[in-house]
Amino acid sequence: MDLRRAPALALAALAMLAGTGAATPSPKPTTSPTQRDGTLQILAYRGYAEYGGTSPQANWTGTFEKETGCRVARLDTVSTPEEMAARVAERPYDVIAADPVLADSMIEAKQVQPIDTAEIEGYDDLLEPLRELVSDSGNAYGVPFLWGYHEFLYDPERVKGGDLGQVLKAGRVMLKDSPLTLADAALVDDAVDRPFELTATQLDRVAEGLEGHEDRTYWKNPLDLIKGFATGSIDYAQATPYHRMLLEKAGKKVKAVPARKATGWADSWMLGSGVTDTGCAYLWLNRMTDPDSQRDAAAWLGLAPANTKACKGRAKPVCEAYGATRSPRLDRIAFAVRPPGDCRPPEGECVDYATWTARWRELAK
Questions:
Q1: How far, in Å, CA of 155 to CA of 229, rounded?
Q2: Taking residues 26-35, what's their average pLDDT?
Q3: Domain shared by 214 and 180, yes or no
Q4: What predicted TM-score, i.e. pTM, was given to this entire model?
Q5: Residue 327 falls within a domain, yes or no?
Q6: Are both 209 and 281 inside the same structural domain?
Q7: Binning pLDDT at 50, 70 and 90, where does residue 63 land?
Q8: How many helices (H) and strands (E) does the chain have?
Q9: Which has more pLDDT, 296 or 327?
């Protein structure tokens, strides 16, 4: 790679990511201590529910208020699952855009209530595998919004690729800084059928396989992996098809390592357990399942929409990258759930998420 070109390549990639995948900070509505008629308190990842931006995608909340008459009394946005879990622990919300681990935790803790799917127009248009992820005992607890999956990219100018096992044994690799990355490493083990349900022995084996690489790095912000490839400081990275798109558009021809299976995740909108007047909450949930809203969200954030009717126009390239409308692609994705402590595979009990987190901290410290 011509290192004289790297800074320009990095800037191009960063500008593209900043312009298409993240909304700018925006003014928040005034706060209200509890939910009242005609108001909403929202918790979401940054870019999922922006307020007051100049583009339609960055002002979904303001548009919702004008069209429904509902007032958003509080809008809190976060960047990481850890920040979101901390906010949920601090106070209740009316609607929450939850990641898989938080969704399972809130269902178990009864912090969310079942959703009346008859009140959600187009609920049946949402991908069935994603709907099942946020269902429990016959009840739907979430409305799937956006999803994605991981792939491992490599720089063909520096390395020849290989398979996932070779990648995880290599040095200059950048992994996502998340305990769930252990599930990606578990895909190397042919004895593992469900990568998010590991016994203590399996988890030990996976963690040991990731040890001993001082030159390995970790990312929380995807800009780090974009810069890593652009400057030539990494050879491999755990990423998404959208990140591959950004790098290719910026002139960096990265490739994806072939894999028989991949890990993925889906974020879903959930309804807080303390919401008694659900009128505005259901209007919001309907807005978030609408094909037009999901089309804007997919194009804006670089994630696939749960409603495949959204795979047109601006969202079409993103849908094509993820294979959103192709059933075979979905069949090979193991979607994330919170690692359970009570499943019973033949060879022993599964370990819980706290154990995953502790092992990951040892690896990534």
A1: 7
A2: 39
A3: yes
A4: 0.88
A5: no
A6: no
A7: confident
A8: 15, 14
A9: 296
**What is the pLDDT averaged over residues 94-110?**
95
Residue of 251, 256, 232, 231 lying closest to 167 (CA atoms): 256
Listing DSSP states for 187-245 in one string gives TT-TT-SSTTS-BHHHHHHHHHHH-S-TT-EEESSHHHHHHHHHHT--SEEEE-HHHHH
Q: 189 and 288 in one domain? A: no
Does some domain include residue 325? no
* Per-residue model confidence as pLDDT tens digits over 114-151: 999 999 999 999 999 999 999 998 999 999 999 999 99
Instruction: Give the DSSP H/E element, type plus range, for residue 298.
Output: helix 291-301
Sheet with 151-154: strands ordered across = 217-219, 173-176, 236-239, 151-154, 255-256
Instruction: Look at residue 140 and tell me if it is in a domain.
Output: yes
Specify the CATH number for the domain of residue 126.
3.40.190.10
Q: How confident is the model at residue 25 (pLDDT cuts 50, 70, 90)?
A: very low
Which range marks the domain in which residue 53 is found? 24-147+265-310
The count of structural domains within the chain is 2
The whole-number average pLDDT for the span 234-239 is: 96
Residues 251, 165: one domain? yes
Residue 157 located in a structural domain? yes
CA-based nearest residue to 267, from 361, 164, 130, 172: 130
Query: What does DSSP say about strands 95-98 and 262-271: parallel, antiparallel, or unpaired?
Result: antiparallel
Residue 305 is encoded by which pair of tokens?
Answer: 């929409």
> Both 43 and 98 in a single domain?
yes
| Cα separation, 9 vs 303, whole angstroms | 23
Please provide the average confidence, as pLDDT, over all residues in the chain: 86
Length of the chain measured in residues? 365
